[in-house]
Each structure stands twice: as C-alpha cells, then as structure tokens.
C-alpha cells in the first residue's frame, strides 16, 4: 500500500450553528493521511459514533471539554483498526476505540485508546452498549442515581442508546421501569423487546397525566436525557427522596432561546429530592466494573441492543440531525469502511 | 383570673391570595379562649414567628404539609408560657415553643411542644438562631450541603434568619463565605458584624459579575433561599462537585406566573453538581445535635443573631409582607404579650 498517496477525508466544523446544524455547519475536506511516528498508531476508522453530546461540543463557551474550534476535525468517538503501530501497547490489526474524530484515518498516541474484541461483540456495539452509552447508563443509574433494588425508575429518551440500557439495567435489579419515547414504534420496542413495564409516547400522550396514572407512588429515580417539558412533568411525580440524574437535555440542545429551566424545581424541596449532573468521563477509571456488569447481563440475555447504521462519512451532516429529530432506532453509528 | 371570660384573638386565613398577601387575606377574629382538658396544656403565646415558608402553607395543593384551610387559624411557630397544664411533661409557668398558631392562646396535646429556657437566651431567639431557622442552617449546610472545612460558600438571603446563621456556621469551619443580600445596610451587617468575607448587594450590583470577581475558583456550596435570577447567576459559578441546597425560593413565592425555573441548570451536568431540596422537619429527631452546636458557637461569641420585633397580633398582615419586601432586619417576630 502506498501510504504516501492515502487520502484522509474529514468532517470539519465550518461554522458554529444557531439551532439545528445543517450543511453549512460542516466541511468535508481531504488531505493526505498521516503516518505513525514513534509512540504513535495510525488507525483506520471503521465506525463513527453519533451522540447528542456532540451538539454541545460545537457551541462556544465553557463546558466539561473545550469546544471544537472552527476549522478543526469534528471530535467523535469511533472504532477502528490499527494500520501502523510504533506504540508498544498496540499491534497492526488490533481493533481499538477512542476519540478518533470524524475522519477516515486518525493518529493516536495511545492515550484514551482501548482495544476491543470483534469476536465478543459486533464492532458498533463498542460505541453503544459496551461503550460510552453503556457506561453512562451503568454509572449514572448506580452511582449518581444511587439505585436500590425494587425502586420505580423513569427514563426519558428511553429508546435511545443510553435510555434503553438504563431501563434494562434497572429491570435486572427488580425495578419497575417506565420509559418515555417518541412514537408508538419506539414505545412498543421498550415494552415488547426490552421488558419495560410501561412506555409513554410523548408525541401522542400527556406525559404528566400518564405519569400520575403509571406511578401513583411516585418515581424514585428519574434518568433524564431530554430536559424541557418532560423534566417538568417528571418533577410533578417524585417520590420523597427521589434522585434525578441529569445526563443530558436533548430537547434543549438546538434552542435558539435560552434553555428552559425546570419550572417545577421546587418539587426538589417538597420531596427532599436530589438533581445531580453527570459526565461519564469521570467514571472511565472504573470502566472495567461497568463493562463487566454489562457483559454479564448480555450473556444472560438481559441486555438487548441495536445499532442504527448509516453508510458513508459524507452522510455525517444528515445523520447527525437524526439524533434530534428522533429518526434513529437505536444507537446511531456511521460506517466508514467494512 | 376568670378563664371563662378570657378572649382569644386569632389570625385566620380569609382567602387564598394571588400574589402578595394583603388585608383581604386575613381575618382577625375573637373567641372565648379554650381550657386545658386531660392531657392538654393551654399556652399563652408571647412571640409569633413570621417565616417565608408560611407563604407556601396558604397556597392550594400538595406540599410537605397540607395547606392551611380557608377559615382556619394561620399555622405559625411561636413561643409562649404554659398557663394551665393537665399534661405530665409540662407545668404552669414553663416556657415552650411549637406550632401554636397565630393566636393569643393555644391548646396543645404536647406533641411538637418543646420547653425553652429564658435564662439561656431571650425568648425570640428560640424562633431564630436557636429554633427552626438555626436548625435549617445547621442541617442544610452540614448534612444536605455536605460542607467541608475551607470550602467556598455562597448564601442568598444572607441577612435573613437562616442565611445569617449559614454564613457564621461556615466561617466557623474555616470557609470563605460570600453573602447576597438586598441593600448596603444588610451587606455592611454581613461583612462588618457577622464576619462574612464579602457581600453582594443584588439591588445595586450585577450578581453574576460580582460572583465571577469574588469566586474565581467557583462556589462549592450554594445555600439558596431566594431562587430566580440569583439561583441562575450562582449556577454560572459552580465549582466541580458543587452542592446547591434548595432551602427556599422567596423571590418566587408571590409569583402570579409559574415559577421561574433555573435556565442554567445544565451547569449541574457540566460541573457534576448536585441540587438538593430540604425540609427542616426531617431533621427534628436530630435537633439536639444542631442546638448544641449552635449554642456552643454562641458561647464562643461566634454566632450573632438579631431579631426584628413588631408589636401586636393586629400587625400580622403588615408584618408578614415585610418578609417579601425585605424590610425586616433579622429574624422577624411578632410580640403578642410581655
């Protein structure tokens, strides 16, 4: 293979979006692929993860990570195969995951790069149930949410990459689990495929009324990926001592007005409840614990996952917006190469 | 004394208010004072506590206590003297505190009634630093807020009955303490009398800008009595792992629109912070621990308190609104009798 002529197509941030991203947000650029130097590996990216949090990474201003700069390759989690290695921990042919970026070839110094095994699970699953979303669900529910066996758990974005796992982890602990999702198909998936006790279709049902009906004793843990009206509805149904895990607020990420604060937040006082934010990266030092629990559950047939795979780097702009329109069914992944 | 002719003047809820209470909210009524029966005590109320939480008690709807019914004597904490006792735990002449109601004479079965000692502190202080507000500050800061020595503490409503104690408790633990209050007088009181490190006058200063200047490393514990804009400003200055104690939201209690939710609540996520509601009654079983700590601090001269005393039950309607206009200087108390 002539490495000198290998071309690397990349998705770069063209301009900070106002509201939803569109074609003008991104540039598809091309440059000569790099070559691994001492201590480096060159990875061919096979699958790119598309996650709601990425919308936050392209806003200006302080967050838990610096924003992606205009002109930079878009930050993205990915799974790929090592093509060249001058790093002691990685060999050519290894499969790896990490923040490789929205590009076909990525250089890495090995930091934050993890080996994954394609014989144990299909590669895209390492971007979903056995990756960042799985760990988010596991640590969010157990550590941040302090889940106890048998509690009542509510999860929003329940058919999404994180929500679907949250529900199954809670079911495995004997909890009653209610999911909120958009559309009858997603709701049927939750109750018929994943074993949720009930699902609320926020597009056709009145969430607060359904919660009152389904959770007469209140909600002990609310795992929120959505924010906005759904968070406000959940705040009306807290049990005393409830914990709300603020994992995300996908309803607010494309706002052009200021974020809608939860008007019912004084329920926290009335119910002596806790609302706590999380960033999954804080738990990466304990990742092994989470991955073992997830793998164990999967072996028992208690952890189902599905990936929604879109083909081709050039589809990045359209595919990215599927996260916010709710078109994806399962963990959204862009496949760059076989 | 002719107990048969003793008259009991009472403040009763006349109508549920929209927004601020006014004369039409209350009725001053009079009836023959009751007589203690078996197991009962009759208390002459000497000092009535006026607390922001009382505004919530007269709203319709679910809260941590049932609402005061229209026509009922207004619920209120008070200190009084036992006039008659047919209860083994109380003797005539004992001084007691409890939820005696906005009235001159109250019957009690002894539940929730505590003896207080007028030789150890002036009676009104048992409604302030050595009463509900003091316990709110102590348990809110230490248990709910999980305060650690040396942290940076921000408190809103800092010159109020709870806020002033929060600041002094935090100072005693070696913390840097910033108070938010309304007006130069209150701010001077915080820094010159109570030893706060800094004070922000929300009426004349830009709170978020002052916080950025005063807390460049962020706030570890924010004890919030106020809500609204001040809560939103504080959310912009959280340190990683910050705890927000939601003790109240005095800025929102007289709203005729829905409560203003904190638009910056996603800072909880970015900063892995916690927002937790509290109701002081949950900690009454541990009251002795808090009272001993408060008394110990007072003995060392590290706990200053002041009461703002208004004379006469008939002043209840006007005095009550002082809580929301900020006119009171210190714990607001209505004196009914010498």
Tally of helical segments of chain A:
9
| Straight-line distance between termini of chain A | 17 Å
The total tally of domains of chain A equals 2
* Rg measurement of chain A, Å: 20 Å
Which key features would you list for this structure?
alpha/beta; 24% helix; globular; seven-stranded mixed β-sheet; Rossmann fold; 338 residues; 2 domains; six-stranded parallel β-sheet
Could you please describe the fold and organization of this structure?
The structure is a homodimer of 338-residue chains. Chain A has 338 residues and is of the alpha/beta class. Chain A has two domains: 3-127 and 306-335, Quinone Oxidoreductase, Chain A, domain 1 (Alpha-Beta Complex); 132-281, Rossmann fold (3-Layer(aba) Sandwich). The first copy, chain A, is built from nine helices and 15 strands. In chain A, helix 2 packs across helix 3 (163-172). The longest helix of chain A is centred in the middle third of the chain and has 13 residues, at 132-144. Chain A is globular. The two termini of chain A are 17 Å apart. At the A-B interface, helix 7 and strand 13 of A face helix 7 and strand 13 of B.
How is this structure best summarized?
The structure is a homodimer of 338-residue chains. The first copy, chain A, contains nine helices and 15 strands.
